[in-house]
Design a protein that fits this description.
The chain has helices spanning 15-21, 40-47, 51-62, 68-79, 113-117, 120-130, 146-155, 174-181, 197-208, 211-219, 232-252, 271-282, 298-305, 330-337, 342-355, 362-369, 379-393, 399-415, 433-441, 453-464, 470-473, 491-499, and strands at 2-5, 8-14, 30-32, 92-94, 99-103, 136-142, 161-168, 188-193, 222-226, 261-266, 286-293, 307-309, 357-359, 372-376, 421-425, 485-486. The chain is an alpha/beta fold. The protein binds pyridoxal-5'-phosphate (PLP).
Length: 502
């Protein structure tokens, strides 16, 4: 299986090169040239396996320059060894009325990013070996909060790698900040950027093509890699848990083999839901993919109208990992749905770069509307939903998952569709304790008055009888290791300083 670029259809590289490079030299994203197809027997086989074997099966369909045994070894190292707090790794729980929640936050940093970022370091270092590169891999990450910590944790002290994380200083929660600022490891660096997530992400993209940095890297045996969800090695492990959820529903007797299900996914950069789309395109029986957004509803509007317009107010919400106005992975979907037409993708994303806006044709929209549904809600609605689920179902969810539930209920009320639906739960509620506490205990009146997140954790534990993950509660009182705050223009200097070159 070879990979091509969304901006240059002539590109042909094996998966190892796609993963090692992260982004194609033409600025496009790598996508597989075709989508592997599975049948019912394949799903039946998966259903009898544990998560690690399910992962090896799915990954080996896409990463054909890796052996099955290699992939199984990485999956066992990534998801085994007591790093996940559930033996199922990504457990599915029934909430009644054909609604199921897929908990993707049982990993070391309590957010769904662990599902990919625990295995990416193995895929990335092996990919570099396979393409014959012995350069130090410098991983630059722009994060709206959860990616940064998960990437730092995944790559810490991995030989041959350095990892630098940039986050918007006012765009992540205190807990997320502290998680990153206290990161251990000899090869890590963390910097806060004045601006929002898009500023941090655009700054990182600019560094990738900066000539003086390239020069310093060449002289010092360094090369860039990406751990953002634009890297195919981030995306492909995420396909696994959609299959896994389907298998678990079959094993529970909740569905019969071949039954279609819905997925509702709280969406920011469009990576998680794109993985669901790949699963469906491979033949996993899917009815609708419901894309849930917060007040930054650029995707809701796009999926409804075909007009992507980032020229709008940016909101800082209580679901910060979805506070994004440029959803990078949408480019992959559009390329696929436009029949691998790189010229059209160049035109759309040229318009986006120039005017912050593009419009796709009715052919593409027809394909989008064939599978996607969309909706959004604001913070107040999110908190109401968290409170309702806690009262009615005795289930505590985080703010991102709250958005997903709200949009799912909207969808269900609008359509009457009672197809079994899996809601992707993307973070532990204790990762956003003040907002969740506000939702279940103070009916939304706590807003902005509650900065001590550890006091919030304790109150939340008391109010719910649920214990916080120790990875979070043990951060209390820890001295931050990284405290620098920089302007976007300083980012390339920060990179060279952290690496001690140039
Ligand atoms: C990253 C993240 C999301 C959004 O996922 P995308 O792949 O960017 O769409 C949702 N919820 C949480 C908690 C996240 O960390």
């Amino acid at each position: 299986m070879m990979y091509t670029s969304t901006r240059d259809g002539k590109v042909r590289v094996p998966s190892a090169a796609a993963i090692a490079n992260g982004i194609s030299p033409d600025g496009g994203l790598y996508v597989p040239q075709s989508i592997p197809q599975i049948d019912r027997a394949f799903i039946k086989k998966l259903a009898a396996m544990d998560y690690e074997h399910r992962a090896a099966e799915i990954l080996s369909l896409y990463l054909t320059d890796f052996s099955y045994d290699e992939l199984l070894d990485y999956a066992c190292k990534a998801y085994g060894g007591g790093k996940f707090s559930s033996k199922d790794r990504a457990p599915v729980r029934s909430l009644g009325e054909n609604a199921y929640v897929l908990e993707l936050w049982r990993g070391p940093t309590c957010a769904f990013k662990d599902m990919a970022l625990q295995i990416l370091p193995f895929l990335l270092t092996a990919s570099c070996r396979k393409i014959g590169s012995d350069k130090t891999r410098v991983i630059l990450v722009a994060t709206s909060g959860d990616t940064g910590k998960a990437a730092l944790e995944g790559f810490r002290d991995v030989p041959g790698t350095r990892i630098l994380v940039f986050y918007p200083c006012d765009g992540v929660s205190n807990m997320q900040k502290l998680q990153m600022a206290t990161q251990e490891g000899a090869n890590v660096g963390v910097a806060a950027i004045r601006g929002n997530f898009d500023d941090a992400q655009n700054g990182v993209k600019a560094i990738f093509t900066n000539a003086s940095i390239k020069d310093a890297f060449d002289k010092n045996g360094c090369a860039f890699s990406s751990a953002n969800s634009i890297n195919w090695g981030r995306l492909v492990p995420q396909i696994v848990y959609y299959f896994s959820a389907y298998c678990d529903l079959m094993n529970k007797g909740a569905i019969e083999p071949g039954d279609k299900i819905n997925f509702t996914v709280p969406t920011g950069n469009f990576g998680d839901i794109l993985a669901a789309w790949y699963a469906a395109a491979m033949g996993l029986p899917v009815n609708r993919l419901i894309c849930a957004s917060n007040a930054n509803n650029v995707l809701t509007d796009f999926l409804e109208t075909g007009v992507y317009d980032r020229n709008r107010r940016f909101y800082t919400t209580c679901s910060p990992s979805m506070d994004i106005l440029i959803s990078s992975n949408l480019e992959r979907l559009l390329f696929m749905l436009a029949g691998y037409d790189d010229a059209r993708v160049r035109e759309w994303f040229g318009c986006l770069a120039e005017n912050g806006k593009y419009t796709v044709g009715t052919d593409v929209m027809k394909r989008i509307n064939g599978v996607f549904e969309q909706g959004y809600c604001d913070d107040k609605q999110t908190k109401n939903t968290i409170s309702r689920i806690f009262r009615e179902r005795n289930y505590l969810c985080d703010t991102h998952t709250g958005v997903a539930f709200n949009v799912y209920y909207q969808y269900r009320a609008r359509t009457g569709d009672s197809t079994p639906t899996v809601i992707a739960s993307t973070a532990s509620p204790f990762k956003f304790p003040a907002a969740v506490l506000d939702a279940i205990k103070y009916a939304g009146t706590l807003e902005g008055t509650y900065d001590d997140e550890f006091a919030a954790i304790r109150q939340l534990e008391q109010a719910t009888g649920i214990s916080a993950p120790v990875q979070l509660s043990s951060l209390e009182g820890r001295e931050p290791r990284f405290t620098g705050v920089y302007d976007r223009e300083e980012m390339s200097r920060v990179v060279l300083d952290m690496l001690g070159i140039g």
